[in-house]
Design goal:
Length: about 575
């Protein structure tokens, strides 16, 4: 940590003030904190707009208690004086996190920012971060780094380190599963034991203190800190930020009978910690806490619409494991399959909820009418239709014998049915998907969907029920969580087999970890799929394993071409 004198920070300028994020009430600060302070969790920025950006950090009292005054400034590259500055008072009530909305900035401009925590004997200076505002207009290309599914226990965040080195990023888009709720005896615990990388706390996180500790652990990672400091982030959560397979009224991994309490209360605790620890704007007073869908404009090139598809409007997900559990006869299996698919097709099932669906339809129209070429969805789960190939036909006996996971062996007969296998994705909400496609068509949108969740990489073309191409989709692999290729053994061609079995899937890679670079111009959109060689060692290499491009046309989006 770096100490500077209190008057030395910002040259002793008379600092302005800024509105506190959300509705947090600022405690009255002492002239200087009586105790030792440190910045242990890096700095971050997010939710960039043409004239403002969220700045975030967390100050840690190493000794002492009470409120802490934290000063901040943001400076344009090469400028002699800050473009904006102020102070924020934090305390134990918000886990000593700091979040400010730095306003009055210039569009499409790069800035650096920093914080200083005021102690009685001087000020402790934070690391410096880089950020960038979005363009208000113009046709400069837009470059996005797209990531998802970063599980502490499954490996090192080497992909974040590589991403932090990418030049010219306008933003990093995190599509969810920023952290995982499981304890050390849960998902990934065996790998964590080998790596010495166990979750803290050791139990599944349920209380507010638990969620805060898990956020603090993840942000102690130097590679994650480097990625946060490199560019502004646009974040949206998926399920593991609260609990696995969460939806509006519950979650697969929430059990009140096991002492986990009321779901609504747990959900609110998870959201409170998320808002405290993540660089995004918070709902205004009176708004639904989870209603964080929002739009970001990147000049005349694109609008990015960050969706919330878990906690506000989602109907309960279905799963084939639950649907077929205990079924022993062909007749019983067939009846359950038919009943499940009838439920899947119910028009009342919703991924986003009626309010967000209407909002998105309006945003599509506003974006197209404003002249933006592309309408990009920062969306959590795969939108393309997706079924597994018929393993009963393509697997050799040697490959069947190589399977060492009971769930894989149990699923082999199901693949002969030719049905979508992941009902927690848009395949489980086909009527809602058609409503989204219809709103995109009505607006004349050129749709680009970004997706995470699967821990694997996809390049997809999206078609509505009539067969019309509605857009393209780029599914990013994980930072560290294992994909299908880690479970289905002895099938090195698994990705090609899945692509061959699905009309909408042009390319699929079920192996490895990394991120996707998505670049948009007025004329085309391209995606480069980047992978790291390992998440088990700090020594690694990185490569681009595939790249695809589609062109903008007056009819929407052309087919994908490999480049």
């Amino acid at each position: 940590m770096t100490l500077v004198t209190r008057r030395g920070l910002l040259g002793g300028a008379a600092l302005g003030t800024v509105a506190l994020a959300a509705c947090q009430t600022a405690p009255k600060a002492a002239p200087g904190f009586e105790g030792e302070l440190a910045f242990q969790h890096g700095v971050a920025s997010g939710d960039p707009l043409p004239d403002r950006v969220i700045l975030w950090t967390r100050v840690t009292p190493l000794a002492g208690t009470g409120p802490v005054t934290v000063k901040w400034d943001v400076t344009e590259a090469g400028a002699a004086a800050p473009a904006a500055f102020g102070e924020f008072v934090t305390s134990e009530a918000r886990d000593y996190t700091v979040k400010v909305d730095a306003t009055g900035l210039k569009p499409a401009t790069e800035y650096t920012y920093r914080f200083a925590a005021i102690a009685a004997d001087g000020a402790v200076l934070s690391p410096e971060g880089r950020t960038r505002t979005t363009a208000a207009n113009g046709t400069a290309p837009v470059k996005l780094g797209v990531v998802s599914c970063s599980n502490w226990q499954f490996g090192l965040f080497t992909a974040y380190q590589e991403l932090s080195k990418e030049q010219g990023l306008d933003a990093i888009v995190h599509l969810g599963d920023y952290l995982y709720e499981y304890g050390t005896d849960g998902y990934g615990g065996d790998i964590a034991e080998k790596l010495g990388r166990k979750h803290d706390p050791a139990t599944e996180i349920v209380s507010l203190s638990d969620y805060r500790r898990r956020h603090a652990q993840y942000k102690s990672d130097a590679n994650l800190q480097a990625a946060h400091a490199a560019a502004p982030w646009i974040c949206t959560w998926d399920d593991h930020e609260s609990a696995n397979d969460s939806y509006r009224t519950g979650a697969e991994n929430h059990d009140p009978d096991k002492g986990e309490g009321d779901w609504t209360e747990r959900k609110q605790r998870a959201l409170q910690a998320y808002f405290e620890w993540m660089p995004l704007r918070e709902p205004k007073p009176g708004e639904v806490t989870s209603a964080v869908w929002r739009t970001f404009r990147f000049g005349d090139v694109a609008t990015v619409h960050a969706l919330e598809s878990r906690l506000t409007g989602r109907s309960e997900p279905l799963s084939w494991g639950d649907a077929l559990a205990g079924a022993t006869t062909q007749a019983e299996i067939g009846a359950r399959v038919m009943a499940t698919m009838a439920t899947v097709a119910d028009p009342a099932r919703t991924m986003l909820g009626a309010e967000q669906e209407a909002w998105l339809a309006d945003e599509f129209k506003a974006s197209v009418q404003s002249g933006a070429a592309w309408q990009v969805l920062a969306n959590q789960v795969i939108m393309a239709t997706n079924k597994l190939p018929d393993f009963t036909k393509i697997m050799t006996q040697a490959q069947i014998d190589a399977q060492d996971r009971p769930e894989v062996l149990a699923f082999i007969p199901f693949t002969a049915l030719g049905l979508p296998f992941n009902l927690d994705a848009w395949d489980g909400y086909p009527a809602a998907r058609e409503r989204l496609y219809a709103s995109a068509k009505a607006a004349g949108a050129a749709l680009v969907t970004l997706a995470g969740d699967t821990h694997t990489a996809y390049a997809n073309e999206l078609h509505d029920a009539s067969g019309e191409r509605r857009g393209v989709e780029f599914g990013c692999t994980s930072i560290s969580s294992p994909g299908l290729g880690a479970y289905v053994k002895a099938m090195p061609d698994l990705g090609q087999q899945i692509a061959d079995a699905n009309e909408e899937i042009i390319w699929h890679d079920p192996f490895g970890h990394g991120y996707t670079l998505v670049t948009l111009t007025r004329n085309d959109v391209s995606a480069a799929f980047r992978k790291v060689s390992t998440v088990y060692s700090p020594e690694f290499t990185a490569e681009t394993v595939a790249a695809f491009k589609a062109a903008y046309s007056k009819d929407g989006v052309t087919e994908l071409a490999r480049v």
